[in-house]
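in:
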């Protein structure tokens, strides 16, 4: 005897700085019968989570292994430098890497920018995490260059940031194993791409166990049909009455014309009878 059917669910991994909240709300509205689990993972561990089947899809940082994964690039972040609020750099709205040349710039082990050569003066060591590097900046030791979402994630009142216009940037993508493109993955793709609930390419309005069906055509109310029929009949009778009236008017005109002719003949005859040549007197 087969066991009870398991309720389908969808597991979405996401890296620090990614914000899946908006898409999760739309998922719950469109597929209330399918639970959505949000799984935070470190950026370096996101690919392994998808390879091992711990998640069905993920919001990850590019690049990814395109021989194994399918990926839809979503957006590219600006890169910023995190500094104390009283730092000289805050006098400008934007800076360049050259402006950081004389500063100690931390390069944490979980860095996601993939520097070929990190800017600034080399630090004595590399902090284990971005959060550790933020704490050092808050202590007045060095600066930190990160994607803007990470600067917001680790926001502190005593710190601020400025855009670094010529720094490498980080892209975020929706990623999943190419061999595991399931219906639920397609549902989430439709949500991320902004398809409507009625899109023919998605199953977004479906709940667990439902099938997609063409909605039945709406029948017109019988009363409206009767009214239209009555209106049509009335219009037809009106046209018939107008035609009959026009025909009657024509016949009447012809009749009057005929009577006038007969009357003319009578008058002519009367003239012939009462007239003629006068008699000659004897």
């Amino acid at each position: 005897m087969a066991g009870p059917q398991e309720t389908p669910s969808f597991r979405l991994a996401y890296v620090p700085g990614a914000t899946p909240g908006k898409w999760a709300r739309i998922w719950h509205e469109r597929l209330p019968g399918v639970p959505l689990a949000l799984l935070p993972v470190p950026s370096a561990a996101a690919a392994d989570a998808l390879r091992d089947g711990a998640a069905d899809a993920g919001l990850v940082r590019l690049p990814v292994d395109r021989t194994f994964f399918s990926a839809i690039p979503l957006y590219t972040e600006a890169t910023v430098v995190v500094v104390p609020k009283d730092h000289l750099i805050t006098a400008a709205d934007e800076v360049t890497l050259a402006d950081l040349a004389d500063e100690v710039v931390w390069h944490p082990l979980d860095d996601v920018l993939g520097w070929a050569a990190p800017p600034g003066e080399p630090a004595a060591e590399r902090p284990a995490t971005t959060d550790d590097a933020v704490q050092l900046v808050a202590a007045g030791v060095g600066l930190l260059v990160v994607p803007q979402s990470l600067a917001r994630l680790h926001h502190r009142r005593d710190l601020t940031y400025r855009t670094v216009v010529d720094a490498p940037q980080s892209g975020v993508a929706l990623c999943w194993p190419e061999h595991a493109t399931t219906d639920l993955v397609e549902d989430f793709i439709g949500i991320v791409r902004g398809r409507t609930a009625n899109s023919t390419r998605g199953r977004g309005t479906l709940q667990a166990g439902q099938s997609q069906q063409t909605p039945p055509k709406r029948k017109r109310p019988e009363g409206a049909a009767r009214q239209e029929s009555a209106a049509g009949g009335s219009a037809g009778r009106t046209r018939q009455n107008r035609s009959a009236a026009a025909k009657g008017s024509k016949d009447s005109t012809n009749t009057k014309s005929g009577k006038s002719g007969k009357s003319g003949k009578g008058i002519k005859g009367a003239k012939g009878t009462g007239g003629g040549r006068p008699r000659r007197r004897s």
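note: The longest strand covers residues 69-77.
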